[in-house]
Hints:
With 250 residues, this protein is mostly helical. It has one domain (37-238). Helices cover 64% and strands 0% of the residues. It has 11 helices and no strands. Helix 8 (167-184) runs antiparallel to helix 9 (187-205). The longest helix has 29 residues, at 92-120. The radius of gyration is 29 Å and the shape is globular.
Amino acid sequence: MDVLALAVAPYITGMPGSPRRLPMRAPRPVTTPHLLNSSVVPLALITIAAVAYLLGSIPFGYLLVRIFRGQDIRSVGSGNIGATNVLRSGAKGLGAATFALDVLKGCTAVWLGGVLASWLAPGMDLRNAEALAALFAVLGHMFPVWLGFRGGKGVATGFGVFLVAAPWAALSAIGVFFVVLALSRYVALGSMIGAASFPVFAWFLVGGSRPVFFIVVQSLVALLIIVMHHANIHRLLTGTEHKLGARSAA
């Protein structure tokens, strides 16, 4: 028995004469470059911005009036392609449809921006991806390539983008718009005050992660909407701005 034990000892751990077993090391995981440190993120940013711009640049007001009335809305009233000018042209149904579709394209751009970010760069902050999409969707509406970069003022599209990115703040801002409109009957005044109120509502009503870029875009979009109303500001100051329901071609 002693001879047998000595023979098998080298192969059995723990027996006298057996070799000491070295501790096993955990297998080293296979590593890949982190997405945030690769070329994937710039590609994702470009894709999100491009898709959002193209969605935002769809000129629904122009298309609807052209298709159903055979007119160029840019030659009517203020020349703007937005819902208010379509409404003033006498096409109430088309005005409502323009508003709804402009809101919808803003919502879709931001939603799709989040989806693209999750596909192309999962490490990207969702709020930043949504903010980027929101900004370029509004820029697409204001400066559509299809109409020589002369588009709308971004109110409906701006409401749409933030209805997804900051819903309670967007609903509060549109509430301010309707209150001002009811009291003054000035669409432009309601639009500007509603836009100006949005970043304030967003500051108090948006929870969770609030990256700097997300906050900056909120204020930037509001500022762009106000700046696009520069002609309305002049008319308000001179008392020549048209009230909702007033019969005027200008």
